Amino acid sequence: MQYYVQQILNALQVGSVYALIALGYTMVYGILTLINFAHGDIFMVSTYIAFFVSTLLLGLTHHLPPLFTFVATLLAAMAGTSLVAVLIERLAYKPLRTAPRISCVITALGVGLLLENFMVAFKPIGPDSRIIPALFESRNYSIAGVTFSTLQIMIILISGIAMVLLDLVVRKTMIGMAMRAISWDKFTVPLMGISVDTIISITFILGASVAAIGGTLYGMAYSIDPYMGIRIGWWAFISAVVGGIGNIRGAMLGGYILGFIEIFTPVFLPTSTYRDFVAFSLLLVLLIFKPTGILGKPAVQKV
Amino acid sequence: MNDTPMLTVDNLIVSYNGIRALQGISLTVQKGEIVTLIGANGAGKSTLLRAISGLVAFQSGSISFHGVPLNSIAAHKIVEMGISHVPEGRGIFANLTVFENLKLATWTRKDRENLDEAFRRVFDLFPRLKERKNQPAGTLSGGEQQMLAVGRALMTNGSLMLLDEPSMGLAPVLVRDIIRTIQEINQQDGTTILLVEQNARQALKIAHRAYVLETGVISLSGEAEELRNNPKVQAAYLGG
After folding, report:
1. Which helix (DSSP H) or strand (DSSP E) does residue B213 occupy?
2. Domain contains B15
3. Could you tell me the CATH number of the domain that includes residue B54?
4. Which residues of A fall within a CB distance of 8 Å from B104?
5. Domain range holding A170?
6. Interface pTM (ipTM) of the complex?
7. Which end of chain B has less neighbouring CB within 10 Å, N or C?
8. Which of B50, B92, B104 to mutate against chain A (most A CBs within 10 Å)?
9. SS3 call for A278
10. Beta pairing class for B34-38 and B192-197
11. Residue B1: inside a domain
């Protein structure tokens, strides 16, 4: 019993990260009908920003309070990653706004490769894996045989809070309304006095910010390297598709489902190497029976 | 007395996909007027409105609003300058609620203190929208969607409203309602109207002046009354 509770906790931790990244895929798809295949690598970039900022802050002679260092690292990662994402959008995707969709998909894949290889070639980073220094003391607790750490609880809680806030932004604010309006009919949106390009940039900022929250937390728990975005990005992408691409809550649900698959595969199958097999099989089976994903609605023919 | 027209379109040429949709159009709209543009399908009426709103680029000629040229001003900026546009086919956001559709149209407004009043005005003109405020706009009937499209244009607080075929697809009784509402908006709110209509009979009833557009050129223009009695107009657009 404790064993399962323990695994559920682990699944929530991993699932939180997938969910945060999946949100970026789903929001960009919602307004541009573009799968931003570079998004997993944008997540990777966020972990490096967090790595450098935290190393810098911890290297200062003055001892900063841990909470300050953590929050500053998180905010810097969000801001830096947003900047990278907006630059990618402006330089790589915007010129292709009227191009065939396949050109955009190939460009997105190319941008991903560029980010990975830039990081490897860039001397201060290189191909080796690293660990973000501990920004606060993470203690281990044990309740009724279930162990968990401060970090683990923080990953689950902060991710949860970020998702609730993002959901509120999309459902309740004018920016969220504009995003949803664009997903329906981007040609009419300018007649409301709204710049579609501005809303697209804001969408990339929101997606990059939640990915950076995931990236900072992830980098504190696991090692980071320039190719980490590939596998995690694919899993997050599957999360978005499983939940229903274009659907915010679907991406969250999908993220947790994939987290459970990752953790529970080795519980029921002989080795953890089956996890990709299980995840992709689920995707294929789901696409046969519910092509729109769990929470996705069939696309309505828009006139 | 300032006699610069509110809207001046001068020798406008628009081509797209290799087709010259407008071949040198000139027209003016004075403040406070209802001007209607009548013509058959494909005459270029929608293209003209879309060029004024900045939705399509034009190759030559000019459009100016209160004397300010609109060349190369982005569509969303033109809304801010005071031109609202009820697009062909209504263009409502079916996935947003009625309230959200209206709210979104206030994006550029700085007079946030007047928003309650603006909502009251729209709900006063269209009580049905108030009843359905929290419903997704996609669940509205065609007539209600048209009300929402007009309401949304009102919410942008423009001084000039462009309407593209507001009567399209509506039952005759609803056509009369919507045309009457447009007149009311002009008379009570002082909004200047440029109305594109296939239903020339209804449009000429409320318009002060009218232009007839035929395959990209203006073939006739004058007082609405005058055009209503013109045998050519009667034969071509008023059913004999």
Report:
1. strand B209-214
2. yes
3. 3.40.50.300
4. 174, 177-178, 181, 192, 194
5. 2-289
6. 0.94
7. N
8. B104
9. helix
10. parallel
11. no
